[in-house]
Amino acid sequence: MKTLSLNLLLAAGLLASLAASLFLGDARLSLASLGDALAGGEDLPALLMRELRLPRALLGLVVGAGLGGAGAVLQGFFRNPLADPGVIGVSASAGLGAVAAMYFGVTALGVLILPLAAVAAAGLGVSLLLFLAGPRASATTLILAGVATGSIATALTALLMNLAPNPWALAEIAYWLMGSLQDASWTELRFATPIVLAGLGLLALTPRALDALSLGEESARSLGVDLRRLRLIVVGGTALAVGGGVAVAGAIGFVGLVVPHLLRPLVGHRPGALILPSMLGGAILIELADLATRLVSGPGMPLYLGVLTALIGAPFFLWLVRSLPGRAV
Q1: What is the pLDDT of residue 194?
Q2: DSSP 8-state class, residue 326
Q3: 184: closest CA among 92, 300, 287?
Q4: What are the structural domains, with CATH classification, of the chain?
Q5: At 61, is the pLDDT very low, low, confident or very high (cuts 50, 70, 90)?
Q6: Which residues, at least 6 apart from 135, have a Cβ–Cβ distance to it below 8 Å?
Q7: Alpha-carbon span 163 to 158, nearest angstrom
């Protein structure tokens, strides 16, 4: 399939999933409700649309695009279809920052304290990653350093949960780590969007280099690719694109793994051509998964977005691992 046709098809799918997210749910809203909401209407359907459905749907679009785009770039950079945004420890580091903010009670200082702490921790995690890997690190070294960084962040998160002063604090931390868009607001959307877009902007600089890198590091160098610069762009862009999403939605896994792998055959296995389709596909997956959590959840029995993506992604991951030896990657 031609890349342009694929992107147009995915864009149409994204519009359809966005419409489903806006109009379907316990309260069935209409296109008129959307118009009233945008016009500043104060009736109940307009308020539901403006204050609940719109920010939630748009935040899902932003978070999904960041996860999908970062996953595509990481798989191209590491030349490994099993790579995803968690491989360099960004998600775990951002989660640690948010958990620390909740543990020490500083979230009461303002609505943006928690996402700010998550983004700051993601930045510190990336700094630690680059320090551990060294200035001339190979892709393998980056993976090992990312595993170490993620393990440290995960261990510290577990320690804070272990030391939680009461069951309610522990429950708050646990629920946040499950990942959800249910408390999405315009404030969180305004906070996350520029961070994620900045990360995606950096990742959009990599298609030519990723295509060259698919031939091997030596071939990429001979084609004029600066691997050190590429490494910094990939790590920095992933930190922003993923960290900004984790900061407002919690830990949502497997999107960056599943989406690029499903779309790769449709772009001729070209890493550079996979980035934009993966952004669109990631946004579609998050929109549909979040809609499913709203439709399935019952009173007192919420289904969290991160739980659903894990239920989808974990079996897919096992199938992918099992199928790798018998197929070309």
Answers
A1: 94
A2: G
A3: 287
A4: 3-9+55-319 (1.10.3470.10)
A5: very high
A6: 228
A7: 9
